[in-house]
Amino acid sequence: MLKQPSKHYYFQKIDQTQIPKRDYTLKKMQVPTVFDLKSIVRESVRNSSGYNVSHFIRAWSNRDLLRMMSNENPLPPSKAVIDAMASEIDVTNLYPAPPSGLCERFAKHVKMKPENIAVCAGSMEVIDVLIRTFTEPGQEVIIHSPTFSAYEKFANLHGAKLTSVKMSPPEFEYPFEAMEKRITDKTKIVFVCTPNNPTGNYCEREDIERLARNNVIVAVDEAYAEYIDQNMTGLISSYPNIVFIRTLSKAWGLAGLRIGYLIADEQVIDYFSRVAQPFHITMPIQRAVEAAFDDVQYLPKRVEANRAGVDYIRKELATIPGVETFPSSGNFVLINAGDTGHDTQDIIEKLLDLGIFARDMSSHRLGGAYFRITVSSPDNNQRFIEAMKHILKP
Ligand SMILES: Cc1ncc(COP(=O)(O)O)c(C=O)c1O
Known about the structure:
about 35% helix
């Protein structure tokens, strides 16, 4: 017996019995031949390489590797967080509620009102949405460099023109004066990362205020602010063009939940929320984050452990000839091993051979042999130090 004709468009028009199974010759001939993907894709997307996730692929493909490459928190989530997440798994057939519980908790944490908060799936998304909210293709975004790579990635992707102002070793002073001079009528956003990834230094509120006297959005990425208990949100009442970006991926130890948030003037939040996705903070994640914020002991303990880790790593590395480190207010240490005669790639590969994944910083073109290590547990920090002493022994 003949099979019933398929309802699919192609097969309604032709006699299926004439087509050997899996021979798509006829179908192919019906596809329009003028299609040229390259001419249709946006130019900025065509020229972009996308966000580089190769280090995550490498780390996830070998779970025994000690992850000291992405400034994650070494501790797994608490039982309360896991239980809270599990308690809402059975509603995943439904669209989630707006994350108002999170807005309340985040607002309290940074001494603002819930109306001043917009929640996203990670602070990378906050950066992406900010650029899409405020810049048209061809308009300008200013950053200092080196810094977190996402500002440049997303600016390029959305066709904005990027101006990057250099910070130089060993102080890596923020180049605020030079950044301000580069502001033009076309500049829409100036990004400032404080504490800065990867240099570890931080800036003061007067620096932010000074930039905010211009007709631009000053986007202050405070991914590591909890480590120094810095809160500059009070500036928003005088300067509604200042916005702050926070994340739960660092001190809060919840990178896998993908939660970041914007703190801003209500009108800014309104525009921003028109661009952001509406349903991407799921109920299990909302509950998990609420449980994390209910644990008031967690943050001070983490911050103290991190500080001890930074001090230990810097003190031990100072005993290795030719190794230079920089003061850090984050959960990472920037290292320059240029004077040891090794290059960055060599050190990164040798650390990998010993099961430790550090982050190559040579793309920042600082000269020397720069890489970054994430502060981990005391045992892991010690393992890293022993590995460094082994690799660099005379
Ligand atoms: C300065 C800075 N901002 C944002 C992020 C991204 O964090 P999230 O996990 O919230 O997307 C990072 C991650 O390393 C970072 O260093």
